[in-house]
Amino acid sequence: MKRSPKFGRKLLIPLLLLMAIVPVGLAEVVYLFQGSITVNTTSQPLQFVYGKDAPNGAAGSYAQVTLIGGNNKSNYAYGFSATVDITNSSYDLFYQIIGLDVLATPANIYVTNVSYTGSIVNNAWIIIQENTNSYASAQVIQIIQNGKAVTGTSTAVTLSSGTYQVSLLIQPNSGPGLTSSSTASITVYFGDNVISSTRVPLPPGV
Prior knowledge:
Elements: H1 5-21, E1 46-50, E2 58-59, E3 63-68, E4 79-84, E5 92-102, E6 107-117, E7 121-129, E8 139-145, E9 148-149, E10 157-159, E11 162-172, E12 185-193
Antiparallel strand pairs: 1-5, 2-3, 3-4, 5-11, 6-10, 6-12, 7-8, 7-11, 8-9
């Protein structure tokens, strides 16, 4: 018996409507491959200490430094937190408030993943000195440029073993907008490439 074309169309329309309403599950094909990772520890290649001009973590009431992961020498601090007071001026220099001990070479230091919130800092630089009495051979790394965080240094700074002094130079957005209630926050990641002088940034979102 031959079916009427009209009957086929009547059956097809409800099926199409049903497919539009009910989600159709798609087949999944997944190939799984196993990898094994062994995690060991190694000696820390550098550590932060209190700077020459802030031996106890403070430069008067104008700069306070807290070491993260340690207190001072041989405690292997892996970071720092600094609070500084700026004012209406051309520049504010917080001289040698942080120390950097290079414990293993080669130490190829660079800055990556800088973040900045606020509007009172126009420019900011980190200055790394080997000679505590001179800026000769000092390494200058800009972290804020024209009110925006710098994406990171293009090249690494190679340091030999020893203790270096770290200063912070800030150019404020001086004027009536700089009040006693004004605040800003800067987060900086230091990289130390122990293999080569290549700058490798942190992955996005870190």
